[in-house]
From TrEMBL, chains A, B:
This is Crp/Fnr family transcriptional regulator. Keywords: DNA-binding, Transcription, Transcription regulation. InterPro entries: cNMP-bd_dom, cNMP-bd_dom_sf, Env_Response_Regulators, HTH_CRP, RmlC-like_jellyroll, Tscrpt_reg_HTH_Crp-type_CS, WH-like_DNA-bd_sf, WH_DNA-bd_sf. SMART domains: cNMP (SM00100), HTH_CRP (SM00419). SUPFAM superfamilies: cAMP-binding domain-like (SSF51206), Winged helix' DNA-binding domain (SSF46785). It comes from Sphingosinicella xenopeptidilytica. CDD domains: CAP_ED, HTH_CRP. The lineage of its organism: Bacteria, Pseudomonadati, Pseudomonadota, Alphaproteobacteria, Sphingomonadales. Residues 146-225 form the HTH crp-type domain.
DNA sequence: CGGCTACTTGAAGGGGTTCAAGCACTGTGG
DNA sequence: CCACAGTGCTTGAACCCCTTCAAGTAGCCG
């Protein structure tokens, strides 16, 4: 018999990583893999909250729409990240795949049962949620106080770090090619800017030799220190 | 013998609310009350993370300083709110009393022990953290996409709601006098604006008859629906 | 190649900041 | 009780960063 979740690429980095074999077997019975095309949504704001999931591959976004129609992305989800909000009745944000993606879905009720029975699962989720809260608060500082160039630099650095962590081909090394998981529009939605401003700021970073671009999605960080300095500036 | 934590004003609304008498007795041995003067800080960003606490009274802020020196408030803490980040080594934000305040402090290590032994405590904290994450993400949308007037309206409505919940004298009724826990400068730090803009926007709301002010801290909401409409606008 | 979408670039306009006074609460001492 | 700081708040005017509106260009797929 093949070992449970044996082929799961995020098995030891995801929420499930702490489970023993018995619990993992149970989880594997509850989980169901689903592939998402780029642009496809897993759920919409206001939906009944019926699912939790682990991200297996790809990048997704958490976003809200203002009444007047423009979007704000409030979080990005990478492989091994957890999706969902246990104990809530409705869903607070849209979740949409930015790239082709794959998730491992659990119905919320049985997932909550598993959490009750495996307290290390709850503990793990608590730690992750606290981290996520911290991430979100750091973005608050960016959106509240920083200029367009500092925000962009921050996003690029964040993407680079997350891509490196999740082994998506990027690396902290200078000049490594990163495939951006976001279009310019999607970057603007994260940064609270317009697509034109994002484009212009990328242009400035290129002119300054801080980054280089390759096609629409390709990006190289040529001067990490300079990029970090821009992020830390106003 | 007097009952444990009997005189605690937030006993049933705080994290401790779910504990049975035995656990509460244990908690009461670990907790230590401390009063804070307005402006006094409980901890600073970068400090060793040694404490958790419940807010008993007053209002506190969570804030960060940008390298260039101006502040961004990333969260407000009201009575019954929880302070601290279990499992982390260092502290991510300054915590400062905005008004005279009182907190019930626990050393982090024994608090974590209590969480391990009383899983409903961990569960409670998880739910609170998930809510707080949600609050923080909603603010992201405000800072990313909304105008100064919408942000201010949002803050006033939030304060009104929180003050009503915590029984600090406010009420959702029209014309009730609210004592703002923040100065204009502190409001600006929450909203990602300057003090001048905050002042001007308050002036506009007054001119429109949406609110009335009384001294520096006093505020009445005269047209809640109009205020809400402004919050929901761009 | 043609067509589509994503992206870039330009110019004008506006919301918020910045800089600079002036005003009004609040407490303190005479 | 009133003068008088002192701090917090308001108001005004110029400026600037980002947006808005409008073309124009480049990557990509049939």
């Amino acid at each position: 018999m093949t070992k449970v979740c044996e082929d799961c690429v995020v098995r030891d980095r995801s929420l499930c990583g702490t489970l023993d074999d018995a619990a993992l077997t149970e989880m594997s019975r509850l989980g169901r893999r689903r592939k998402l095309a780029a642009g496809e949504s897993l759920q919409f704001e206001g939906d009944d909250n019926i699912l939790c999931a682990n991200v297996l591959g790809g990048v997704l976004k958490l976003s809200s729409l203002t009444p007047s129609g423009d979007a704000q992305t409030v979080g990005l989800l990478y492989p091994a990240d957890f999706i969902g909000r246990p104990y809530a009745d409705t869903v607070d944000h849209d979740i949409t795949a930015l790239t082709e993606a794959e998730v491992c879905i659990f119905a919320r009720a049985p997932f909550e049962r598993m959490m009750a029975e495996n307290i290390q699962l709850e503990r793990q989720l608590l730690e992750r949620t606290l981290s996520e809260l911290e991430r979100s608060r750091r973005w608050l500082l960016f959106l509240g106080r920083k200029s367009a160039s500092a925000r962009l630099a921050g996003l690029i650095i964040d993407i680079d770090r997350r891509m490196a962590q999740t082994g998506c081909g990027a690396d902290l090394g200078i000049g490594q090619l990163i495939q951006l998981p976001l279009t310019r529009t999607e970057m603007a939605d994260v940064l609270g800017l317009t697509i034109e401003t994002v484009s212009r700021e990328i242009g400035k970073l290129k002119d300054a030799g801080v980054i280089a671009t390759e096609g629409r999605r390709g990006l190289r960080i040529l001067k990490p220190a300079a990029l970090k300095a821009i992020m830390d500036s106003e």
